[in-house]
Design brief:
seven-stranded mixed sheet; 18% helix; globular
Length: 170
Amino acid sequence: MLPPDLQDDEWEVGLDRTPFWQPGALDGYSRRLRLTLNPGLIGSRAAIRIDTARNGHVSGYVITQRPDSHRHAITVKRHFVPTPEEMARLDALIAQAGIWTIYPEHWVLRETGNNVCIDGVPTVLERLSEEGYRYSEANAQCTAPSGFLKVAAEMIEIAGLGDIVPTWLY
């Protein structure tokens, strides 16, 4: 799913395995966004993708996976169509947060001597556009700046997962 310089065994189990970084991944699109959440300890995962076609049509795709009582994966896939207002809010939050200004972005915990991060939700935001592939990764509870979390929360709301996923983020 991720470029070779960002390979990580944890992320190789991604739900949406579309490799945005490969040549041709933008064919027919002006922009593709993906949010991947992998809160390992609770065994649930989610991937949200929003694609903007060259003709301006915006479509979304969400995959969630959670274990059943026997630890078998229950996978749910669903399409959605973001409104222009939702996309305008998302774009404004992305601009305010300054996400993807460097490549790759890895948000890390500042060492102050009092910080302890035992677990959290590894979170990846990806963008592919005419400007190229961009990647931003943080632990939602431990390292993610507020702007990063606002963008993730907006994508979660747009995808209709607001009742489930925010408990992973906050």
